[in-house]
Design brief:
Elements (H helix, E strand, L loop, with lengths): L2 E11 L2 E12 L3 E5 L6 H9 L6 E8 L3 E4 L11 H5 L1 H5 L6 H10 L15 H14 L4 E5 L7 H14 L4 E6 L2 H7 L2 E6 L2 E5 L16 H16 L1
Parallel strand pairs: 3-7, 3-8, 5-6, 6-7
Antiparallel strand pairs: 1-2, 1-4, 8-9
């Protein structure tokens, strides 16, 4: 299968090791869920793949083989720009002519057509994340890096955003950084657990239908969620 990105190496924060000897390949057109507790270096791995500053000392190799779009935990919307302008922000910052018709189609896809002219202050947290997802899609990159984008949402909104992202990011290469075993069990075509001991691939709850998250209440999903949590607690 085609490679979307690869990282191999180790990292330190000052003199303290952050992670040691990781070796991770992201496969194209597949959701890789990088699961683990806070502070083990998940977001650092994502930022290294994206070519962003991390504040750590890294020895090794990190490269994305496909153009990258990034969606972070914070929606990062510009407060004085409306929804449509936030979605097209990247293109306009690059001096490109923004395709507003395409932006409107994506805004409709995330269910915000009636709020396209609203400022972020008039949106709920879940709506702001929908804008961030539309902005990520507007960049039209084959590799999408998601850094815990739904972790601050309530359970109902988070579940809806997982379903929405699974559909809209179908056929993309996706790295999802998460500390939520339930999210990994719903979305992962591959689940990799990062602990102080390194990276370990984890069993899946069966295949995932392309473009869909697994049902949150499916017995195999719940069993996988529990198994992942046990491994995290034991690490």
């Amino acid at each position: 299968m085609t490679e979307a990105a690869h990282i191999r190496g180790r990292a330190w924060v000052g003199d303290q090791p952050l992670f040691d000897s990781v070796d991770l390949t992201l496969r194209a057109a597949e959701w890789t869920c990088l699961l683990g507790p806070s502070g083990v270096g998940k977001s650092t791995i994502l930022r290294l793949i994206a070519g962003l500053e991390t504040g750590v000392r890294f020895e090794g190799h990190a490269k994305a083989s496909q153009p990258v779009a990034l969606m972070a935990q914070d929606a990062g919307l510009i407060g004085w720009l409306d929804v449509r302008s936030n979605v097209t922000l990247g293109a306009r910052l690059r001096g490109e002519l923004a395709d507003t018709a395409r932006a409107d189609r994506l805004i409709a896809a995330v269910g915000l057509s009636d709020r396209a002219a609203h400022l972020p202050a008039r949106l709920s947290g879940g709506q702001r994340q929908r804008v961030a997802l539309a902005r990520t899609l507007f960049e039209d990159r084959p590799l999408v890096l998601l850094d815990e984008p739904f972790s601050a949402l309530d359970a109902r909104t988070r579940t809806g955003m997982q379903d929405l992202a699974a559909g809209l990011l179908r056929d993309r290469s996706v790295l999802l950084v998460t500390h939520d075993p339930a999210e990994a069990a719903r979305l992962g075509d591959r689940i990799v657990l990062l602990t102080s001991a390194g990276l370990q691939d984890q069993p899946l709850p069966g295949p995932r239908i392309p473009g869909q998250a697994r049902p949150y209440d499916a017995p195999q999903v719940l069993q996988t969620q529990a198994a992942l949590l046990r491994r995290m607690l034991a690490a």
